[in-house]
Specification:
Largest interface: A-B, 64 and 64 residues
Number of strands of chain A: 9
Order of helices and strands of chain A: HEHHEHEHEEEHEHEEH
Structural class of chain A: alpha/beta
Oligomer: homodimer
Number of domains of chain A: 2
Radius of gyration of chain A: 20 Å
CATH class of the largest domain in chain A: Alpha Beta
CATH topology of the largest domain in chain A: Rossmann fold
Strand content of chain A: 15-25%
Strand order of the largest sheet of chain A: 5-6-4-3-7-8-9
Chain lengths: ~220, ~220
Amino acid sequence: MTPPITHPIPKKTIERLSEYRRSLLSCHEQGITHIFSHILAGMHGITAVQVRRDLMLIGFSSDTKKGYDVKVLIEFINNILDSREVMNLAIIGMGRLGQAITSYFNGKRRKMRIVAAFDVDPTKVGTAIDNIPCYHIDSLAEVVEQMDISIAVISSPTSVAPSLVVPIINAGIKGVINFTSAPLNFPQGIVAENYDITTVLEKVAYFVKEADENGDKS
Amino acid sequence: MTPPITHPIPKKTIERLSEYRRSLLSCHEQGITHIFSHILAGMHGITAVQVRRDLMLIGFSSDTKKGYDVKVLIEFINNILDSREVMNLAIIGMGRLGQAITSYFNGKRRKMRIVAAFDVDPTKVGTAIDNIPCYHIDSLAEVVEQMDISIAVISSPTSVAPSLVVPIINAGIKGVINFTSAPLNFPQGIVAENYDITTVLEKVAYFVKEADENGDKS
DNA sequence: GGGTGTGAAGCCGTTCACAGCA
DNA sequence: TGCTGTGAACGGCTTCACACCC
């Protein structure tokens, strides 16, 4: 049932599919069986055309004019986004941010699971936090190999983040999400996303300031 | 010294300015006084042209050909990004994510400060966590008014996030960063950024899967 | 009429290519 | 020569406009 995959799906569309899916799941739980493009769009503050275009890009179309079948669409998005096998993730840095991410995330998706944490704190190493076993960072390569981990989430202090790059590469990690403020460069072949919380705060602050100074029309 | 501000600066450029600034500050600490565009670019995994274009857009240019003067450039970016007065922020949801954000952020920037937290947990309300006083969410409007808070960071459980929208609007908040998975719609006039951690994880997972299935050239 | 699917146009951000300057 | 500044080309994403279908 996986669509033949025509041509590459844009990054932005992938992001929105992930968001659509969450809304659709929540609709499904509420017993909603069909949904119009403009309703789905409204939930996300975007236009109906945008939604329809995204669905077109993934090759989805509804046969009926009563809106999209929620259950069918969820399945379709699952087929696009989810990997066949469960994808295993590791958290590097099991401080408050690491724990927050773990508890926000685990259990939410069937095809992704945070299976290991890494830290240097001797009070954490060797224990399990929120049911996630915590290892010393030095054993990254072995554990990644043993547990078949493909993605690493960096939630360590910013200062130690740069020193993680080489170990992560050597461990054979395929994807990285970096939540620290240190911009990290990984070689071609590793999917990396820098997701710096400080930057968002500063960005919002800037546009608030701008709105205040200028266009704040009555 | 604030530049006359020609025409609106793109969102993406603002994000990068925030990132450049952090790198420049770290260069400055190390005693580096001048930096070439291609060096700065390399730190962020982008091209030198991109850096120069960004600086062009904010009206910065170097008189010397020995690279950009680090200190001068930092000051220039400060003038763009920072507000004149300190901007006060509130955290809504003082769980692990809220605490993590607070400790990651506070003290980092002179012109932004997290000054209050809101929660419903009676063991938290009335106390101070990491030196941030914690109030009950019901007193949002009063505290926002009293403390002159303009930005709210939502780090509550996803399930309660939708119920925060109206109180936030009524409290007169000007900017919102939403870290939950619930897409929130705020009216025109409020700067809002949805910053969903789950989406990033799913996005990276997708592109890892894609790289695995297709182009993984030797 | 109210909704969907989609070519074509438009917009925005990045990259190219090159002029100018020490 | 090596770096900066920038008009122009390019490419990706969004929006317009409209055909089609219940």
